[in-house]
Amino acid sequence: MESKVLRVEGGAPLKGEVRIYPAKNAALPILAASLLTEEPITLLEVPRLRDVEVMLELLAHLGTRYEWEGRALHLHTPELKRLEAPYELVGQMRASFIVWGALLARAGEGRVSWPGGCAFGARPVDQHVKALRALGAEVVEEGHTFYARRKGPLGGRVVFDLPTVGGTEQALLALALEGEGTLVQAAVEPEVEDLGRFLTLLGVEIRGLGSPILHVKGAKRLGGGTYRIIPDRIEAGTYLLAAAATRGEVTLTEVRPDHLDALLDKLAQSGHRIATGKDWVRLTATPTPEPLHVEAREYPGFPTDLQPIVTAYLATVPGQSTVMDRVYPDRFTHVGELARMGAELYLRDRLLMVNGKKLHGAQVKALDIRAGGGLLVAALSAEGTTEMEGVYFLERGYEDLEGKLRALGARVYLEAQAPSLAAD
Ligand SMILES: CC(=O)N[C@H]1[C@@H](OP(=O)(O)OP(=O)(O)OC[C@H]2O[C@@H](n3ccc(=O)[nH]c3=O)[C@H](O)[C@@H]2O)O[C@H](CO)[C@@H](O)[C@@H]1O
Ligand SMILES: C=C(OP(=O)(O)O)C(=O)O
What we know:
Layout: E1 5-9, E2 15-19, H1 24-33, E3 41-44, H2 50-62, E4 65-69, E5 72-76, E6 84-85, H3 87-90, H4 99-107, E7 109-113, H5 126-134, E8 138-142, E9 145-149, E10 155-159, H6 165-175, E11 180-184, H7 190-202, E12 205-207, E13 213-217, E14 225-228, H8 233-245, E15 249-253, H9 261-269, E16 273-276, E17 280-284, E18 293-296, H10 307-314, E19 319-325, H11 333-339, E20 344-348, E21 351-356, E22 363-365, H12 369-381, E23 385-389, H13 391-397, H14 401-407, E24 411-415, H15 419-422
Bound molecules: uridine-diphosphate-N-acetylglucosamine (UD1) and phosphoenolpyruvate (PEP).
Uridine-diphosphate-N-acetylglucosamine binds at residues 25, 28, 94-95, 122-128, 162, 164-167, 187, 189, 191, 304-305, 327-328.
């Protein structure tokens, strides 16, 4: 059972420079896509995160040999050894579900368990099933597993009911070998585009990348190659919001400022000074920020993954802010925990009203990755000490969190168990 606790002594403004690592949510589908080729692949600078370790365990189960060289990762799947992804691995995170499309493409069949991932409301997979069926695969749902097979090359037109990141990635992988098809209302998130670029490197033809209509032409065989994953816009956003909440000054390096447009605009609206260069962003916080109205939407809108974190920031901003999440309307597991720190939050018909004020330290629990990010931001700005349980979730999404925050002057300590909790 997880027993680590993150102790945060709040109140220190974050100051300094922090390097942003590659995107977890781009790395994971790219790792799944490595199953498509028998040629070796090298990914440069892969984030060393728990989710990546789980995905590598799944790939190894399916037949991949891999080796770390510093932060680079060499992968090689000469042949698939198994065609099923079990619950023990797929149940740990969402992204592993898309190995299904890769198995179907390479082996002609594949079975996956119902996926896990963060539980912040309903997360159906009907669009994944719809896409594979529309491309001509036979799909059978058996208990909590999904089986798909194809007789010949996949092809056709998928019209998604709504833009889905995972569903679009699933369809891209399914079409990558021999398939040919069009995806309508595809997700346009940078992580989907990054997967598309990686597939292009392997030999798949994709027109329309970054737009909601994608034309995909798979190849008979795919090659290998070396690829650099895009920076993590959610990690970047977390540090920017932490800097804003603590009224500090932080420069992010190795980022894509264009991927952060929606957040940077909101931070500027709130009164903070933002400067950007080709691959860096600096936030100089105003001591008197303004409240905001934030609505999380699909890219290029405000990211749902930053919604719990911007909520935590707004809980520290005097005045009334409002927050809605149009992508995951019930993504509010952080609300009750923020309230323990004194935050005034009222949820009415999926509209969150936030009356910002100075927060105080408390014992809190992260219930999913970005809820953890939000609690962390609140704790950094709060008066007094916060002890956070659920560190497991933070470790799914943030590499070297303690080291990076300490370098920015934060007083954060990862402990085996907080003394006050040990007494329980
Ligand atoms: C590993 C990964 O990359 N996770 C991200 C990915 O999750 P994930 O790929 O699971 O999210 P989706 O983009 O698929 O979900 C978007 C919306 O579509 C709905 N939906 C999705 C699939 C489906 O078959 N049916 C359906 O109705 C979902 O309930 C949600 O309301 O994108 C989300 C939205 O940016 C992010 O919050 C997650 O961090
Ligand atoms: C919610 C996330 O991941 P998952 O989709 O795997 O739950 C996330 O990265 O914020």
